[in-house]
Design goal:
Helix content is 24%, strand content 31%. The chain is α+β, with helices and mostly antiparallel strands. The radius of gyration is 35 Å and the shape is flat.
Length: 451
């Protein structure tokens, strides 16, 4: 019995020893792991100023400079100094843009980037460009995949060509300053300056990045045998091989030997029934007079009875195309004011053609005002209250584009205050109800008024 008891006791001590050894190993392992983690944490969190480099390693040392975003005046969300933007030069003219750019490196300034970012954040998709063509220059025949194009001629005379579905008929017409042109998406068109002075066109679209193909680029990208079989010229493919792509982009073309190339040119005017689909005589349209200025419209008119036969053609054709725009000229007399107002259903973009003025904008974040001059582009997001005041002796003249071809829905300050019950205004402004009778209700529309 004693021998058996000793064996049992020995077995018990052996189990206890094993347990103690395992427990001690676990403690040591945990302690070592904690020590390692502490060392790693201390090394990673050590300030750069406390790190000492070996002298021989100093040439490899790099300094991390935090990227600081430059402070940009908030007005540039709504203002673009277009003449300061990048100039795209061609042999026959230049193009400049006020738009959003996917590549931020394409902006020339932080202010221009702020404007483009604002267009993007408001989902406006609105784009404005200027096209300047030298005398006899040609904006090459081209088409846009993804947008309609609306243009307003500021200066010069041009001969326009449009080739629509099927290509059986090319509609051609002449335009002069103050008139509007319209090119639907995927409609081939060209613009030829037929005057002695530079041709200057403002054009608007509803697309952040226009996708465009020029005819010369298409021809040179087409295999020679395919082009030959399609055109069937005399000499076949050998004739096709006589065409040579120029080194310079011919988006706006003006060959130095143009007189040798063109022997005779005629600038035919198509019938009005065709022309007025792509043309609108804005300067000759109805004028809407106010005490402080004049507004004219190129838009779809629901009430066709008030339009001329040609204006009906333009109106109905415009209404057939999605994402078309409304264009307008706004003329504000000296010291006139386009009173504070906002639009329910449209963004607004404008270009200063002449004069100087002051713009004020009230949105949910801030109240901003700034001066505007010739060549400036302004942007008013939908629902943003804004006003425009003329500040020179001469008239302030705008061309405006609205992101709808339908009727604008607009509310002016005098209208919404006069429509609000006086007791509501009294409670809101802590002012006696009788005081609001001092605000007159004038019979003449004061959308543009004078002091």
């Amino acid at each position: 019995m004693n021998t058996i008891s000793r064996i049992e006791k020995k077995g018990q001590w052996s189990l206890v020893s094993i347990f103690l050894v395992c427990f001690l190993a676990c403690i040591l392992t945990t302690a070592v792991a904690a020590l390692i983690l502490s060392v790693v944490y201390v090394n990673n969190s050590q300030p750069l100023s406390d790190i000492h480099f070996r002298p021989e390693a100093w040439p490899l040392q790099t300094t991390v400079i935090p990227i600081m975003q430059k402070a940009v005046d908030p007005k540039f969300q709504f203002l673009n100094h277009l003449p300061k933007s990048k100039v795209f030069e061609f042999p026959g003219g230049v193009i400049q843009w006020a738009r959003y750019r996917n590549n931020v490196c394409d902006y020339l300034s932080d202010e221009e980037e702020a404007f483009g970012t604002s267009l993007k954040s408001q989902r406006s998709q609105m784009t404005l460009g200027t096209l300047r063509i030298k005398s006899n220059g040609l904006r090459a025949p081209h088409w846009h995949f993804n947008a309609n194009e609306h243009g307003y001629l500021v200066q010069g005379t041009a001969w326009i060509g449009v080739v629509d579905d099927g290509g059986k008929v090319a509609t051609t017409y002449n335009v002069t300053a103050g008139q509007v042109i319209f090119f639907p998406k995927n409609t081939l068109h060209w613009i030829k300056n037929v005057g002695n002075e530079d041709f200057f066109l403002l054009f608007f679209s509803m697309q952040e990045e226009l996708q465009t193909l020029d005819v010369d680029d298409v021809v040179f990208s087409t295999p020679e045998d395919i082009a030959s079989r399609s055109l069937k010229p005399e000499g076949g493919v050998n004739f096709i091989r006589t065409f040579h792509k120029q080194k310079e982009d011919q988006g706006i073309s003006l060959p130095p030997n143009l007189a040798e190339l063109v022997m005779s040119a005629s600038y035919v005017q198509s019938p009005d029934s065709l022309v007025w689909k792509y043309f609108f005589d804005l300067k000759g349209s109805k004028e809407y007079h106010f005490p402080g200025g004049i507004i004219q419209w190129a838009q779809y008119g629901k009430n066709g009875s008030k339009l001329s036969n040609n204006e009906k053609i333009f109106s109905e054709f415009l209404n057939q195309h999605e994402n078309a725009l409304t264009l307008s000229t706004l003329r504000i007399f000296n010291n006139g004011l386009r009173q504070p107002h906002f639009h329910f259903n449209t963004n607004e973009m404008g270009y200063v053609i002449s004069g100087c003025g002051k713009v004020g904008i009230i949105n949910t974040q801030d109240t901003i005002d700034f001066n505007i001059h010739i060549g400036d582009v302004i942007f008013f997001p939908i629902g943003t209250q804004h006003y425009i005041k003329s500040t020179l002796d001469e008239d302030l003249l705008f061309i405006l584009a609205f992101s709808t071809e339908d009727q604008l829905q607009t509310l002016d300050m005098d209208d919404y205050l006069q429509a609000t019950a006086e007791h509501i205004l009294a409670q809101l402004f802590f002012k006696r109800q009788s005081e609001f009778k001092k605000i007159p209700k004038l019979q003449e529309d004061q959308a543009i008024n004078l002091p």
